[in-house]
């Protein structure tokens, strides 16, 4: 290729690349209203966005993986935590974490009730944007993932050649634990002492027996698995006093699992969690 040909090739390649870039840009803007559910941008969402920027939340957090990486990505936080938890947390984060233990603590922003409601509305809108599953990164609260640390491995039933049985309720329950919406792993750890938005489920079997034997137990469960089923489908049936997992008599755990999961899935999930002694 001589100099003239190289020059023409460079010019042509630049023009083609420019046309492709412009075409993709136009196509992206064409899809933005649908992908972002622009019709759901209410005054509360706008107020929340302004609150987000005014308080420089992006200096610590990320949305869609963009921002600082000092604190968790909040793209799906509204779906994973729920409005009651976020409202209580934003009012006073210090009630949820011990600065000496966790080393990092979100400062109290002294937000008004309207700002908190707006910020939750904004994060709820963000959580419903079609972001093509990005970022592919779990929320980390205590420094341990949902299966980090020394989590015990429940026994499973092996079939021929050591293959795990697809009919084993424990195996099926583990799948539900990791795939439910929102995933149980978003709030609960299986590691001892790794409390996240919800308590660690390590040792839940032993704690349950102690809870049901206590005169303060207010639920209707009579055994371990029925207690776990009750906790899944009616999370406010029994609340632990003094624990920052509820507010105003309502558990922060979503109360939608009773309708979103089938009775069989709830039973499998209870069987899986019952193995954590």
Search tags:
Cytochrome Bc1 Complex, Chain D, domain 2; 4 strands; two-stranded antiparallel sheet; mainly alpha
Describe the protein's architecture and organization.
There is one protein chain. The protein contains eleven helices and four strands, in the order ααββαααααααββαα. It has helices at residues 3-35, 43-54, 77-81, 83-91, 99-102, 113-127, 169-179, 204-213, 224-233, 257-260, 263-273, and strands at 62-63, 66-67, 246-247, 250-251. It has three domains: 1-35; 38-137, Cytochrome Bc1 Complex, Chain D, domain 2 (Orthogonal Bundle); 160-273, Cytochrome Bc1 Complex, Chain D, domain 2. It has 277 residues and is an all-alpha fold. The chain has a two-stranded antiparallel ribbon with strand order 1-2.
How is this structure best summarized?
By secondary structure, this protein is mainly α.
Topology:
Layout lengths: L2 H33 L7 H12 L7 E2 L2 E2 L9 H5 L1 H9 L7 H4 L10 H15 L41 H11 L24 H10 L10 H10 L12 E2 L2 E2 L5 H4 L2 H11 L4
Helix pairs in contact: 2-6, 4-6, 7-11, 9-11
Helix content: 40-55%
Which strand order do you get reading across the main beta sheet?
1-2
N-to-C SSE string, H for helix and E for strand: HHEEHHHHHHHEEHH
**What is the mean pLDDT?**
85
Q: How many angstroms separate the termini? A: 73 Å
CA radius of gyration is 24 Å
At CATH level 3, the topology of the largest domain is Cytochrome Bc1 Complex, Chain D, domain 2
What is the CATH-assigned architecture of the largest domain? Orthogonal Bundle
Strand percent estimate? under 5%
Query: What's the helix count?
Result: 11
């Amino acid at each position: 290729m001589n100099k003239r040909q190289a020059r023409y090739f460079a010019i042509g390649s630049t023009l083609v690349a420019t046309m492709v870039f412009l075409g993709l840009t136009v196509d992206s803007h064409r899809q933005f209203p649908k992908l972002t559910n622009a019709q759901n941008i209410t005054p509360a969402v706008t107020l929340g966005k302004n609150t987000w920027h005014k308080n420089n939340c992006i200096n610590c957090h990320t949305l869609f993986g963009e921002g600082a990486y000092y604190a968790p990505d909040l793209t799906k936080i509204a779906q994973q935590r729920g409005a009651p938890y976020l409202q209580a947390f934003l009012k006073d984060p210090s009630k949820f974490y011990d600065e000496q233990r966790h080393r990092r603590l979100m400062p109290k922003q002294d937000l008004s009730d309207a700002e908190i409601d707006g910020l939750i509305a904004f994060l709820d809108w963000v959580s419903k944007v079609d972001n093509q599953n990005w970022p592919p990164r779990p929320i980390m609260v205590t420094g341990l993932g949902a299966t980090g640390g020394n989590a015990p491995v429940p026994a499973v039933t092996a079939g021929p050649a050591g293959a795990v049985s697809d009919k084993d309720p424990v195996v099926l329950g583990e799948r539900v634990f990791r795939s439910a919406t929102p995933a149980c792993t978003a709030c609960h750890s299986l590691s001892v002492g790794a409390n996240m938005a919800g308590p660690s489920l390590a040792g839940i079997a032993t704690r349950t027996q102690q809870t049901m034997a206590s005169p303060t137990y207010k639920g209707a469960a009579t055994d371990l698995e029925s207690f776990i089923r009750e906790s899944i489908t009616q999370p406010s049936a029994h609340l632990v006093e003094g624990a920052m997992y509820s507010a105003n008599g309502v558990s922060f755990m979503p109360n939608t699992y009773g309708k979103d999961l089938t009775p069989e899935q709830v039973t499998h999930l209870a069987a899986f969690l019952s193995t954590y002694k």
